[in-house]
Design brief:
Largest sheet: 5 strands, antiparallel
Shape: globular
Number of helices: 1
Number of domains: 1
Strand order of the largest sheet: 6-5-4-1-7
Number of strands: 7
CATH architecture: Roll
Helix content: 10-25%
CATH class: Mainly Beta
CATH superfamily: SH3 Domains
Distance between the termini: 28 Å
CATH topology: SH3 type barrels
Amino acid sequence: MSRQKLAIFGALLLAASCSGVTGGRTVVKGAGPDELLKLRYGPGLGYKVKLGLPDGTALVRRDCVTEMGQLWCRVSLADAPAVTGYVSADYLSAP
């Protein structure tokens, strides 16, 4: 399978995993040992950062949107549901 086809397949699979799934549990994965995933006030890099989330942080996925070709998911902290924001779907994984 070519890289382009693999990239398209991966994007479709990721979009399918977000679409229609609300209340789904997920965890932060891939931010790195010395980095934090940025929880933002809105879906995109132009929004301010609310807080940083380390790998392994449990989240509840609410919904996802595409902004500028990037999939962003509205999430809340599993242990503090009132804390909500947007993260890049690239860093979400099944628990």
